[in-house]
Amino acid sequence: MFNLEQLSAAHPLASSYGWDAGYAESFAPFAEQGFLPGRIVRVDRGRVDAVVPDGDGVTTVLADTALVATSDPTRVPCTGDWAAVDLVNGPGGGVVRATLPRRTAFVRSTSSKRSEGQILAANVDHAVIAVSLAVELDLGRVERFVTLSWESGAQPLIVLTKADLVGDPVTLSHLVEDTQSTAPGVQVLAVSAATGEGLEVLAAVLAGGTAVLLGQSGAGKSTLANALVGTDVQDVRATRDQDGKGRHTTTTRDLLPLPGGGVLIDTPGLRGVGMWDAESGLTRTFSDIEELAAECRFHDCAHEAEPGCAVLEAVEHGVLAQRRLDSYRKLLRENQRIVAKTDARLRAEMRRTWKQQQMLGRHMMERKRGGGGQRR
């Protein structure tokens, strides 16, 4: 029978892959059944690669999963999960019998027309959002990634890649500042895999934990992963000059050990990142707007046309950018729609709110017309 005490703090499964006393406690019932703890490092068509203890080291086994027969895609094993592995097929293979409770999970909606969620990575400490400086900075997309990162339970970290392509240090500083303004409480690093700029700081932040690397195709994720791991573990292809977009050089989500300890989960480029029940993430990403909203005259202010709206006053006086308010409204509406697909009561509430906003809008227009007619 496997002995959990074998996995001391010095064991590679603990020092390199993140195993700790909390996971050991959750795994105890499975240890009694003779299963091994394993961390899933790759998922491909219902089969997983998992690292399991092997004496004083670790070994990788290929395992089928007994957990795919579920209508809930968020319950399917994913990269980063800790699992109970049954080596029924010998030392090189087995079956995943269960996964341990997830501490964090990065979830996006699978489609704007469906109400399913897809987990991209589990048990992550840092969500590293790669944003290429080879193209114009899309702050709205940054806010979207940051929102889902906060919602996952992980700490967001924005990495502006290809910093060597920005020739002027002052311009680079402004780009960093613009990004920081969209993500309160989030560290922003300018990094170049070509020159090594910022890599040492990034590696120090990620050491010892689990990080997931997120971003669009062409953001330089595979190049960054190779630089952090210290070897060419991921294929790299050139991006198109006209739009900075690249092909999906990474096709699976792979968990890669880092030289300084900890692991990095590289993901395929994400063309679409839909909201998935991310209310608390929105609150943290747009904490500046939430703070202003607390000063509005009405507690249910929609920040559209209401009198005494502190948010609209902030926009009028240049304290808050109109672009940021528009982004907040867009993500809030999108999140409400995806939640409403699975919550009939919320759908009814949204319809009532929409009717109230229509009535308020008509009332405000009538007031403006009346005021204009009374002027002399």
Walkthrough of the structure:
Strand 4 (82-86) and strand 5 (93-99) form a beta hairpin. Helix 3 (139-152) packs across helix 7 and helix 10 (322-340) runs antiparallel to helix 11. Strands 10-9-8-11-13-12 form a six-stranded mixed beta sheet, with helices on both faces. Mean pLDDT is 83; it is low at 237-250 and 372-376. The chain is an alpha/beta fold. 35% of the residues lie in helices and 21% in strands. It folds into three domains: 4-99, Nucleic acid-binding proteins (OB fold (Dihydrolipoamide Acetyltransferase, E2P), Beta Barrel); 105-266, P-loop containing nucleotide triphosphate hydrolases (Rossmann fold, 3-Layer(aba) Sandwich), CATH 3.40.50.300; 286-374, Ribonucleotide Reductase Protein R1, domain 1, CATH 1.10.40.50. The chain contains eleven helices and 13 strands. The chain is globular and about 80 Å long. The protein has helices spanning 12-15, 21-31, 139-152, 169-182, 199-206, 221-229, 279-285, 287-293, 310-316, 322-340, 344-374, and strands at residues 36-44, 47-54, 57-65, 82-86, 93-99, 105-109, 117-122, 126-132, 155-161, 187-190, 210-214, 254-257, 263-266.
Q: Which descriptors apply to this entry?
A:
alpha/beta, disordered C terminus, Rossmann fold, OB fold (Dihydrolipoamide Acetyltransferase, E2P), single chain, 11 helices, 5-stranded mixed barrel, 376 residues, 6-stranded mixed β-sheet, 21% strand, Ribonucleotide Reductase Protein R1, domain 1
